[in-house]
User: Fold these one by one.
Assistant:
Number 1:
Amino acid sequence: MRDNANHRRIPPRVTANVCEAAGCVSLRSIEVARLLEQRLDELDERGTGDATVKRVGCLGLCAAGPLVKIPQTGELFENVTVGSEAFVRLVDHLMAADPTKGARPEPSSFFVHQTPVVLENSGLIDPEDIDDYIAHGGYEALKGALTGMSPTQVIDQVVASGLRGRGGGGFPVGIKWQTVAKSRTSDRKYVVCNADEGDPGAFMDRSVLESDPHRVLEGMAIAAYAVGADTGYVYCRAEYPLAVKRLKTAIRQARRKGVLGQHIADSQFSFHVEVRLGAGAFVCGEETALIASIEGRRGSPRPRPPYPAVSGLHGRPTLINNVESFANIAPIIRNGGEWYAKTGVGRSRGTKVFALAGRVVRTGLIEVPMGITLREVIFDIGGGIIDGRPFKAVQTGGPSGGCIPAELLDATLDYESLAEKGSIMGSGGMIVLDDTSCMVDVARFFMDFSRDESCGKCAPCRSGTTQLRMLLDKIVEGQADMRDLSRLEELASMVKATSLCGLGQNAPNPILSTLRFFRHEYLAHIKERVCPAGVCPIGQKSEVTV
Amino acid sequence: MRQVSPAAPRDDKRWRMVDARIRRLGNSPEGLIEVLHTVQEAFGYLDHETLAYVGNALGVPPSRTYGVATFYSHFTMKPQGEHTCVVCTGTACYINGAGSIIKRISSELNVEPGETTADNRLSLLTARCLGACSLAPAVVFDNEVQGKLTPDDVMTHLEQLS
């Protein structure tokens, strides 16, 4: 059994919260935690156990891992690798620190601009210990809903919160719940959590599942109660072994505690959850393809309507929401929809989790209120560009999104504002680009991705993405003329208008948005046969690098 | 009529894992992807023999087992080398130089992505995104993720794999 801080009667003087989410784990944080425990044990001659080690989820600032936080004093230790000077400093500090004395350090600007709601427990609780989640108010929202609220009242709170789908679509979550709740055609309904985070450059769902898996299960259970479902699936990427492991542990513990399974909290409500593994297909993020995959078939989408809310898994009404959407539910039910709606701007309410990466100093996982500006995110939270190079663009929404240039840095982050600028909110991947990136090459990178991931069912997407990729190849090789550019534009609009599902409809976005803001780079490749960033193999045969 | 499970193709203990998984999923055709995950975990790859066995046990036609196995990029029909090296080609890794890492491995070890070296020592693979974007560019050596690598670092790591 794990010796856990909150199982003790006397709380320890200080706790070292060691991040054990995937980023820090690959920097050997598991070994760091083990050695730290060993070292503290050796130094604790009287066996007081007043300095302990706790394994927690993501502490956010992934760039400086392995991270260790002392919650009692608010200090964060960065780059605590095995045998490092930081490790020695941490041990000394843990032995000597007195949380009752001395001022708490000023938190870094990485943290002060953030508003944790989804991530409120991340880095604070042990993700493999349900008691720790319960000690932090976990499963109270579910019990509260089961004992004191009707399903309609639950849905009303979600509608009032203004929460919109966090997987990228931005469809109002409450309205989706109402539709599924109203479907009375079937004996059975399902709740599905979409954890097939396929966007390259996005790791929000992975971090949430690794850091606070019970929060997602609680959100699903509340949803199931609200819409009248009894079975749920979490469809998770196989590429996330740690997230899958923690999720399975969480399901097992929740069953044992009686917060999942038959007659939850002695009510009439029963809800069973199973994990289904994806197998590496981006298109499975599309809800009808995801359903096909859960049914053990190829992940090919089908035309909608009927929407899954009416006819989904096994032809029955199915509620599909993304990990982050479900993770928002417990706080909404606990504090009320109005409380949630206080944050945000316009029709975008609440907070959004972003995975900040690319050429930015402080990469990591952040949660900010809707309506924050890109400048605040990239410069105040992210600490600006690596080596002080000039900022060029920020890519949001992955292969379905677009690039926003430096002139629009003061634009706000919300669904409408991003759509207006030719990008999308997407699931929350945010890649910062500097002058070392060529925008035509970036567009080609995403088109190569979409071409490879196209399921092949509809012709506009299957052939269109291939043709678009070939036109971009010609441009980066310096072989294109102006007719190719107009072909590119024409074809991009055609693929967008005629594809069957979101993959094809959004695949041209990276081209269209770079053409809108960085047309001069395309023209430089075509007219002057130069790549301004010096990335493209002008005059050579381009090699497929991905 | 009660469905009788066919006997495993070979007298190999690894089949017990697969059989157990098939039983737990109630021999349901829906469990195909789950079972293929188990097969690949046990044997390292899928082949026609295993597909035929799984299809038979789940009551799924060969067209569908083959269709599913080849649709999903996680499943491979080729045996892997003694070691695997997976280079992440997600956006953050791409703009931070994943391409030059692949190029270097390809040219020095004479192996293309998705292939295994002639001496069967190393399989070079690419991943869409590992979600380790803060460590870009990231590479997985035999299931162990390493981050912020240069092509030189990668070659040193590869030499150390034994």
Note: The longest strand of chain B covers residues 83-88.
Number 2:
Amino acid sequence: MNLEPTLQDATLAVSLRGVGKRFGSVEAVKSLDLRVERGSLIGLLGPNGAGKSTAIRMIMSLIRPDCGELTVLGGDALDMKDRIGYLPEERGVYRRMRVGEFLIYIGRLKGLSKSEAALRVARWLERIELPGVLRSRCQELSKGMQQKVQFIAAVLHDPDLIVLDEPFSGLDPVNARILINAVRDLHREGRTILLSTHQMSQAEQLCDRVVLINRGEKILDANTQQVLSDFAPRAIEVEASDAAQLAAAHLGELPGVESTKEGSSPRSLVLCLSEGANPQDTMAHALSAIGCRRLEIARVSLDDVFIRLVTEHGGHARLEARGSA
Amino acid sequence: MMERVTIVASAASSSGFRLSRIMTIAWREFKHTVFTKGFIIGALAFPLVMFGLIGLMPLLLSDKPTPVTGTVVVADSDGAVAQAMAEAFRQYREPSPTAIATGSPFDEFDPDSLDAMGRGVVQVDISRVALDSDLAPIRSRVQEGSLLGLVEIPAGLLESNPSDDLEISLLVPSGSPTKTTALIERLAREATVVARVERSGGDLDATRALLRHPRSATARLNAEGNTAREDIKIRYFLPGAFMMLMWIAAFTSANQLLTTTIEEKSSKVIEVLLSAASPLELLAGKIAGQSLVSALMLSTYGVAGLSGLAMIAALDLVPISTLLLFIVWFVLAYLMVASIMTAIGSAVSDLREAQSLVQPAMIVMMVPLMLWLPISENPTGWLATVASFIPPCGPFVMVLRTTGAMEPIPEWQIAVALLVNAAATVGLVWAAARIFRVGVLMQGKPPTPRELIRWARAR
């Protein structure tokens, strides 16, 4: 790890060094190092019970770490509440309060004046497609609508750092898309965003960098594109026009091909390349050998990386970060 | 084992404590408690109506009651009772300090009594018949309602030593008001006594004068040689009223704190709130908000109570110094009870779980109610003195003592009670803040008392 000697780095929004937390006999977070640069959008990934929410709660100063060093926006999160937006995993609303009243209340706690909060509430309700609910009681809204209201509560005060714990869980694809766009816009505006999720596709779409935690330990901390590249299989997927042609072509004997395996469809085959083989040359050979409907370098998804790492390391072995951290 | 923890605070750190946040939380807490139908009806309207009715009672009683008009037939042996009864009704209409119709011929008439205030038009004629005459036609007239009643006085009742088996018989129509029958029966009894005294040759006026009960007054002499008049009404009623007022106001708000804290936990809004305010700010705001609710109740009931005292010209029973001291005791009592209830609310997940922790706390807090009578009986005794130094009962006991004592409570006792209870208040608020900080984020089974202590001592 290449941590700076001091935690008071002006370029960092969040910095954790050797932070740990134990609940009874369970070590929820083990000596976690994490650096979140200002203006970045970082995905904190991990299976259920990996320690993501505990790490986030420590970052938010909701619980104190047992050990380690921790700074948020150069200080203690307790003193920075007006500059931090937080959407907790365990979220709720005052059921009998009206939506507008609830959001203005949270806005006022975050240091906004009543009029400014009211203005922003109206703007945000339009922005995330919740018009006309201002005077509705929170209990009258669907779960998804309540979640959008809670998202507004987290970002209403224009925070520098936004911490979102499973922000898209339970949302239908339309509403998830609305929130994903909102998160992307906030990132473009220069906010630092720390996003915890176990939905890899969303992390892949949104995050500059991903940090994977399993059983309280960090097992990956890298640039998203770098992860996809590092974990990409050295393979080519060929989809033939018909299955018989695919069997007759003996693609496994092409130069540079070490082995073959089934592809994503009955008419496709994955050609695993040997060490030093040039994918472009192998693709050219494949094109001349068979009538291809589709020919591409096989891709890896974060899902694949996630499953592979968690399965391979069982959460016990610690994998050093790959790529840039 | 890793031990070192560094959480870097900014140079402008305010330890996460901001007054504006506390005020915002307090106002929400107040608004969402007070502006609800349940509170307006239960905590304000109902008691105010009760106070209003108590205040209106004398006026209601002084309003025109059912008139008593008609004829009562008295059947006696020689007409003496009938004559005395006619005189009794006359005196009842025009009462005098030694009137026969005050309950006993020997009691004094109190013009301020409820009986005096409740008198309406009484216009009763007495008609006498001989005891041995045919009473059947008279009974028929009573039955049809043309007579107010038939009173039969057995001859033996006028003897100097009548048999216990003999009794006056009163026959009234079935729809006769109870108040009317009670009046006729009472005056018949008194008239019988008067007739009996006259038959024995006694002087009724002289006997009345001899047997009249003297007035009495008790004064307590303290060590300095000063005396203080003792008033039984003050001694029992006033301290109880003050303590109950304080108890109700403190517990209503503390109970709200318990339920709203549990509600915030169960609805999962607590973590959203904690992202905007520190646990200490949240706790302080909630306690401050409910203190306003408590103050509202206290002032509503207090003003109603003081108005009641003003109506009966007894406002001097509550000197301003007592009121000021009452406010101090109330603040201490409220903070102690509120701290206990908030700590419990933060530690549990629902109201059912809260019961097991609230019950022991409630037993302790019921102690002042149980001590009401013994302490009112002797506000300067050892029980009262010791109890006033034991929190959280101390403030309640001190209110009983200061409002009920016929002689001043020694200043050193007030000072020590203030000191001990204030220290306990600080301790309880501190412990509640520590428990709240840990408890509000906890889910699952409720903590044991030992775990609560561990939370309070946690770093």
Note: Chain A touches chain B through 47 residues (CB under 8 Å).
Number 3:
Amino acid sequence: MEVIKVPSQYIVYEGYCYGTLRYIKKKLEVDKNMLLDLKELKAAAERLIDKIHTKKSFNKDIMEITEIHKMILADPFLWSEIEKNAKNGKISIESLLNVRDKIIELLINTGNPLIIERQYDIKDIFNALIKEIVGEEKKELFPNDVVYVEEVYPSDIIELYKSRVGAILSKKGSHTSHAAILAMSLEIPYIYNVPELSKYDGHSVFVDAFYGKIIIDPSPDKIKEIKRIIKKYQEEKKELEQYSKLQFKDIKVMANIGFLQEIDLAKKKGADGIGLFRTEFLFLNRRSPPSEEEQFLIYKRVLESFYPNEVTIRLLDIGGDKQISYLDMPKEENPFLGVRGIRLLLKNKELLITQLKALIRASKYGNLKILIPMVTVTKDVIEVRKLLEKLRKDVNGYGEIKLGIMVEVPAVIFNIEEFIPYIDFVSIGTNDLTQYLFAADRNNVNVSSYYNDESKIVLSAINMAVNKLSKANIPVSICGELAGKAHIIEKLLEIGIRELSVAPSKIPKIKKQIAEFLDPKASSRV
Amino acid sequence: MKKIVKKLVVKNPEGLHARPAGKLVRILSDTKSTVIINYKGKTVNTKSVLSLLTLGVDPGEEIEVVIEGEDAEKALKLVESVVIGGN
């Protein structure tokens, strides 16, 4: 039995699956020197276009993505490049793949992460084209199989969905890929950045896409536990659907999202607003910082999507553990105890100012709350508040903007009274709070026994903060994983927490838990 | 034959990436005019979704559209709906 932990940030869609691991090789096994007739290639492309055309889908995401694949297959630029590389009406597979790589290089050269993602669509299309001509050996898949691939292409997801595959694991991937969008849309558990698993082809595997755990060849005892978990989950899932529509008078269950692509899922699952909109995606994987305009348009989109509910947008929260080419970041021995969050922003005022300006402009499109990450001392907040007020005078037509802090550094818990005059709300980041309290990295399996966010120590810290903040009428929300643990909800509600923010897929279960805890009179169905 | 040249600022939060680019190509496929987009010295025809993608137009950027044909005005409205419409 082998247990593999994958950081939860790589979970695209949650769920459980116990089945057989199927490794699907992406590498095409064809002779690179094989010559393809241009006319046949064109005919193959037409057949593919027809196949896509006749597959009318119920799902709008599938339709949109396959529409683009159709367009690419008919793209004049594509065919002019292929013709350039053909001799006497024929092109070798190697040359065809060179055309593919040239196109991918053009996409990569734009330096834009969303466009660079499209390389998987290109690979997908060329793959399908070659298979259409050469014929392919289809690997047999059975319902509930767990598929492992190096890279997932959009058409894979569609095929896998039809085979009723139970979960997808990939070595490479991202939340913004078309594959991820489809996995979320079709509700197939999907985790990427998974280690090499090809040697386990044919082995039994349990995928826990809630926590981020993969168990290969579970022991008989483990299997019993797994079957129990899955049975319970399947029974609950059906029942849970109805809870997303529930709305409580005094309790909000909101969504944590990190990409615009998650907005639809958050709405579908019944989010009462966005409790945490992570902005890191805007800044990572690019060569230059996002412009004020680009940020403004994205913040505006989220705010409008959830209006009149509140949307809490967190300022850029990163540190030395991530590489950002356009920022001057010192090499640190302990990046989690170093220049990160607001510390980094205050050392890069231009970046902070641009983000604040974009937020101020976007604020008139919804109910905006700005969240400051990694706050340690009041000076952190005071400086941001001053900057915010100064910038608001320069920008026209802004709405109401609330400013609040992440409570994750333990010092803040002991000193929360001093922050009260400067803040409109608080969000407790229980993940980092727990890490700092127990001095244990939650992604380090060697110290996992020390990291315990359910411990009474964490709850006591939350209690301390809530007591002081509620006296000052400052709303407190919990946005760490603890908020998504149904069995802890009762304790959190008893402490006085009335706002929770969780991954979209967890919302129905948390709402159910709250409904069961409350007197029925306090809840109303909308 | 009408010719319209206009500068537009891209308001779509996704810029002219996959879905907006695809939408642009699709809605213009019925028009009789040719639509050319100029951006940072590069010129592409909207018949090619790949060429549009490789332009790499981010949100907030300015593009120049050159439309020639009998239904140029209609084509311009269609372009604006995607570029400015934000869908």
Note: The radius of gyration of chain A is 25 Å.
